[in-house]
Design a protein that fits this description.
This protein has a domain at 283-442: Translation factors (Elongation Factor Tu (Ef-tu), domain 3, Beta Barrel). It contains 13 helices and 20 strands. It has helices at 18-31, 76-92, 109-112, 134-147, 177-184, 204-217, 292-297, 337-343, 362-380, 386-390, 396-405, 416-427, 483-501, and strands at residues 67-72, 96-102, 122-123, 189-191, 196-199, 221-224, 228-232, 241-245, 250-253, 255-258, 269-270, 276-281, 285-287, 302-313, 316-329, 333-335, 351-355, 429-436, 444-448, 467-469. The structure holds flavin-adenine dinucleotide.
Length: 502
């Protein structure tokens, strides 16, 4: 069975409800005026909700045979799904109305905030094992490479600009179909030394622009300012899904792709399916009350250091993870990409250990500080204080806070034992984790729909045919560095193509 566009209840009173009442006529009227391949576009400034309706493939909106795909959420995964569905429908010559329902006033806003406004959309060195639920992710990557074999992508660009050898290392990596997809939408990109990929224009808005343009060309309809409250499964096999909107209106669809991200997921009922609790991760960490004076003293100070995360198990301290990079002190704790990554594993009671010296081994750190002391004494010919030893090694505020926290007077003479004491302090400064520092800053929510209920090759529910969940709404997450967007594109592409096929 197929669902012709329908709206219920508050239909006439709803301003955007007019879209579906007007469009069939609107479309029919213009279809007779323009040729099938004419590059005609409706004037969206007159009614912003009348956007991106299927003009290009001459989709007849009131055709009884037309199928309807509803996508809940116009973020990374939702837009990728819409484009993949549009491409599949075009290639199959199928009549498919694709509607993206976005509660915000525009699609793609969540993408604009990524990568500090630059959108780190992928990574050349994705380690699949780093993903939460990595087996599921690996199967999805393989499925996508089968679905979208890479053509042409991965060739080096001939350019005099040295930053442009962007495809180096692409050939053997996992997930290169995503590049092919974004390139096919028109995105040019570059790669930084650590493998992070950004748009060549270095602006997240460019990514949104190319996705919207691709969606528009494929006739995808954006319905913005429309929050979906619930998705109800068909009452009988082959029946329609019902989408209940926040304003009481309902819509019907033959298939639904849930792409609402993690933040808003708890407010959306999806066919009564159970969700795991959503936990904010990839964010700053709050430290225990005893450590607050230390971090408060250093509020807003940035240091390069390595950070390890330990958990007590019996009498042992087990290392859970370690990261290197820039760490920023906050009044409540610590922040920075290295902390964000550790926040995926951290629990209250765990211990962070900050190493301010770029030295992996404690004995080397002690040897180094003694060597430094001897060198400075030889140079200046005077006895050395703790403050003298740390000057030039760490920031003055860091030196002050470190010494103060362990009650060492900065004027104390730095003998061999004090040297070791300072080496220990700099090599492993402990902070107890109390929890996530600021949920609003967290980049991802862990939890949502368990991957066990979904097919890894299509993202379709194993229980409810025609229902798909993609992106962050599934219980998948990765570290910083392009992992999460890469997952959003991958899962969205699989679901979009499958929803059109089924
Ligand atoms: C500040 C920040 C920076 C980040 N930087 C990066 C980065 O550089 N690289 C990276 O890989 N990842 C990054 N991430 C993570 C990444 O943005 C997400 O993992 C990714 O966007 C998830 O995609 P999604 O499509 O599943 O969800 P989202 O992108 O969150 O999109 C969900 C969309 O659904 C809409 N929506 C929600 N509920 C409803 C509803 N009920 N009805 C209708 N619409 C609804 C939302 O308004 C939104 O537009 C960052 C995250 C944040 C917060």
């Amino acid at each position: 069975m197929c669902c012709a566009p329908q709206r219920g209840e508050a239909n006439e009173s709803c301003p955007w409800g007019v879209t579906h009442l007007v469009l069939p006529l609107f479309r029919v009227q213009f279809a007779s005026q323009v040729g099938e391949n004419d590059d005609w576009q409706p004037d969206m400034t007159k009614n912003p909700t009348l956007c991106h309706i299927g003009w290009q493939y001459n989709v007849t909106m009131n055709d009884a045979r037309e199928k309807r795909l509803a996508i809940v959420g116009g973020g990374a995964a939702g837009l990728a799904a819409a484009i993949a569905a549009g491409e599949a429908a075009r290639d199959a010559g199928a009549l498919l109305q694709i509607v993206v329902y976005e509660r915000d006033d525009r699609v793609g806003r969540s993408i604009l905030a990524t990568g500090n406004g630059r959108c780190n959309f992928s990574n050349a060195r994705l380690q699949l094992g780093e993903y939460h639920n990595s087996d599921f992710v690996a199967q999805a990557f393989t499925a996508l490479e089968r679905l979208r074999p890479v053509r042409g992508c991965g060739e080096p660009v001939t350019s005099e600009v040295s930053e442009l050898p962007r495809h180096v290392g692409v050939r053997d990596e996992a997930g290169r179909s995503v590049l092919e997809f974004l390139e096919s939408c028109g995105l040019e990109w570059r790669e930084e030394a650590d493998g992070r990929r950004y748009p060549l224009a270095n602006k997240a808005s460019v990514v949104v622009d190319v996705l919207r343009a691709a969606a528009r060309t494929l006739g995808v309809c954006e319905q913005c300012g429309v929050g979906v409250k619930a998705v109800e499964a068909p009452r009988k096999p082959g029946g329609c899904f019902t989408l209940r909107m926040a304003d009481g209106v309902f819509e019907r669809a033959d298939a639904v792709i849930v792409a609402c991200g993690g933040r808003a997921l708890s407010a959306l009922d999806v066919a009564g399916l159970r969700k795991k609790d959503l936990k904010p991760i990839l964010g700053p960490l709050r430290v225990a009350a005893d450590d607050i004076p230390f971090v408060r003293e250093l509020d807003n100070i940035r240091v390069r250091c390595s950070v390890r995360l330990f958990r007590e198990r019996g009498d042992d301290l087990v290392l859970l993870g370690s990261e290197k990079g820039e760490l920023m002190f906050r009044k409540y704790g610590v922040s920075g990409i290295c902390v964000f990554n550790l926040s995926r594993m951290a629990r209250p009671g765990d211990q962070l250990s900050l190493n301010f010296l770029d030295i992996g081994d404690l004995q080397h750190a002690r040897d180094y500080l003694r060597f430094r002391r001897d060198k400075l004494v030889a140079r200046f010919g005077v006895s050395l204080t703790c403050a003298d030893l740390l000057r030039g090694l760490v920031l003055p505020r860091v030196s002050e806070a470190l010494l103060k926290s362990v009650g060492i007077d900065e004027g104390r003479t730095c003998d061999a034992d004090t040297c070791d004491e300072l080496a220990d302090l700099l090599w492993s400064y402990p902070l107890e984790v109390a929890g996530i520092g600021d949920e609003d800053v967290c980049q991802v929510r862990r939890g949502g729909f368990s991957v066990d209920g979904f097919d890894s090759a299509t993202m379709q529910s194993k229980e409810i045919s025609g229902l798909y969940v993609v992106g962050e709404a599934l219980d998948v997450d990765g570290p910083c560095g392009g992992y999460n967007l890469h997952w959003a594109w991958t899962s969205g592409l699989l679901a979009g193509a499958s929803a059109c096929r089924e």
